[in-house]
Amino acid sequence: MEKFITHTGTGVPLRRSNVDTDQIIPAVYLKRVTRSGFEDGLFAAWRNDSDFVLNQPEFKSGTILVAGADFGTGSSREHAVWALQNYGFKVVISSRFADIFRGNSQKGGLLTILLSQSEVEDLWAAIEANPALAITVDLEAKTVAYGEQIVSFEIDDYVRWRLMEGLDDIGLTLANSDSIDTFEAKRAAHKPKTLPIRA
Amino acid sequence: MPLFSKNLGVAMGKTLAEKIWQEHVVRAKEGEPDLIYIDLHLIHEVTSPQAFDGLRLSNRKVRRPDLTIATEDHNVPTQNIDLPIADPVSKLQVDTLRANCAEFGVRIHSLGDAEQGIVHVVGPQLGLTQPGLTIVCGDSHTSTHGAFGALAFGIGTSEVEHVLATQTLPLQRPKTMAINVNGKLKPGVTSKDIILAIIAKIGTGGGQGYVIEYRGEAIRELSMEARMTICNMSIEAGARAGLITPDETTFAYIKGKPHAPEDFDAALSYWKTLFSDADAKFDLEVDLNADVLEPFVTWGTNPGQGVFLNANVPNPADIADAEERGAAERALVYMGLTAGQPMKSVAIDTVFLGSCTNGRIEDLRAAAEILKGKKVAPSTRMLVVPGSARVRLQAESEGLDKVFIDAGAEWRNAGCSMCLGMNPDILKPKERSASTSNRNFEGRQGKGGRTHLVSPLVAAATAIRGTLSSPADL
After folding, report:
1. What ipTM does this complex have?
2. Closest Cα partner for B416 from B23, B116, B3?
3. What SS3 class is residue B168?
4. By CB count within 10 A, which of A160, B29, B34, B237 is most buried?
5. Inter-chain touch B69–A81, beta carbons under 8 Å
6. A22, A97, A189 member nearest B439 (Cβ)
C-alpha cells in the first residue's frame, strides 16, 4: 500500500446524503477479477446525467470527494473503494461513513475524513465558489487546509500510523502468528468444521 | 474510538456480543485493534478473486480450509443452469472461484450441487452456523447468522484475504445497542415488518458503530428463519452485526443438521451460557412495540424510507430536516410517486420472492399458502427464487412449486438473482417491483428500476391484486 502523508488537490462537491455502494458502483460492474479498471463503473447511473458533478469540466480532475452524510452505506464491496481510487480520488470527506466502507477504505489507502456537517457545508461552498481551490490534507497534522481555513479532524492513531507507513495488515498479523497458534490449540472441540464434508 | 463499557473494577455483567468478542481475542494490545479469531469464513465468487490473487502474490496459503466454505450465488443464472453461463464475465468470475477453491483446497458447492445457494442460506442449513461463533463473509448480509447468537458480519476483500491467510481479523470493538421489541405481532405481520419498522425508526445510519441485540417477547416467539430475516437487515440500519440470544428454538433448529456438533451436549452446555447478563449495560437501548405494527412497505430509495402499507406516500414538505427533505424529494421523483398517494394504489409490474432476507422454506410456504388456487394478476409477473438448491428441493417435495406455477409465477433455481441484478434477472428502467429482498437503492434491481421492499405475505397478495396489497385485502 502506498504511504499517505499529505495530499494536495482540488475538490468535488457531491451534495447528496446516503450515497450507497450501489450508486458508487452498481453490481453489474463487480464482475472483474482484478483490482483495477473499476473507474468506468464509478457513479455509473449518475454519469449519464449531464448535470452530475463529475460531468462538469471544472470538477473532472478533482481528487478530494466531499460528500453528504452516510456515504458508502449498503454492501461490503471493496470495489467501491477501488472504483474511487481507480478514478483518481485520494480522499473522501463526509460527516458520516458506513462502517464497512470506512474499514475498506482504510485497508486500501483511500483516506476517509470525518468533518462536521457544517464544516462539510463550508467546504462545499468554497469549492463551488472556486473549483480550482487547492485543498491540502495533512494526515500527520490531522488537518484539511484550504484558502485561509485550517480544519482539524480526528482519526484513530493506529489507523493513521498504518496509512502513513503504508503497512499491510496481513504482514503485521503474521508477525504475531505464535499467538494464533496458541489460541487455536485451546479452541473447543465442538466448534464446526467444513471439512470433511458431512451429508 | 467507541469501546465496550470499561470494567472499572466493579463486577459488571456482559452483553452477549461482549462475551463472544472476549472469547475470540487472540491478542490485545493497548492502542491497537484486538486480533479476533474467526470460526467460520464463507466465500462467494464476487468478493474473493482479488483476495486469492493476493495470497498467490505473497506465496501464502489458506490457513484453515476446514473453517472455510464457498458457494456460487451472486452471478449465477436461475434458468438453464445445466448450460454454460451465458454472460462471459460472470462465467469467468465463477470459473475463477472454482479454480481458486481447487488450488487452495477450499470446499465449494457449485451450480447444480444440492448444497449450492445463497451463502447465508447455505451456512445455516448445513448446521455450520452455530451459537457463539465468529462468522465473516465478503458480503454485508453476513449479519444474518447473528440469528443463532453468533457474531457475524460482512467484510471487504482485503479482509477476506486477511482471514484466508491468518483466520483472524484486527478489529475495533463495536458499541452495543439493545432493541427491545415488546408485545406480540398481529396476524399477517412478520419479522420483515419488524425490521423495516426498526430501520424507519433509527435510520440507515442509526446502527453505525454498534452491534445490535434484538430482544423482547416478539423476538423470542419468532422461528429461526424469521429471526434470520431480522438480523439480515441489521446492515440496512447501519449496524455491521445484529444478534439474538440462542434458545430452545435455536438448538432444535441445529439438531440433526449435517454439521451439528457430534458431541451435542458439550456444545449445548456452552451455548446456554450465551446471553446478556441481567446487569449488562448496553451503550444504547431502543424500544419498539410489536402490538401496533402493521405490514410495512418502502416508498423511497433507502430502506429507512418506509411506512405502513395502509398509509400514504409521505409529503417531503412535512419533513423538518432539510437534508432528509431533499432526499425524499429526489426519491419520489426516482420512484415516480406523488406525495399523499395511498401506497395501496401503486401498481406493481414484478414481484420478486427470494434473497438471503426472505428466500427460505418458511417464506416460500407463507407465500404459497396465499397463492394457492389463485392467479397472479395479468399485468404482473412473479419470480420465485429459492435461497438454495436445498430449499428448492424441499419446496418441490411439498408441492409448493406447483402452487407457484399454477398461479402463473416463474419457478427458478437458487441464487441472489433479482436482489441485486448481477445475473439476467433484472428490472427494466421504470419497471416497478415489490421485492422481499433487502435494498431499494436506485438501480439496485436493474438500472432505473423501482423497488418496494415487502414481506413474503405482502409480495404474494400484491402478485394476486397487481397493486401493493396485504393478505387482508384479498
Report:
1. 0.95
2. B116
3. strand
4. B237
5. no
6. A22
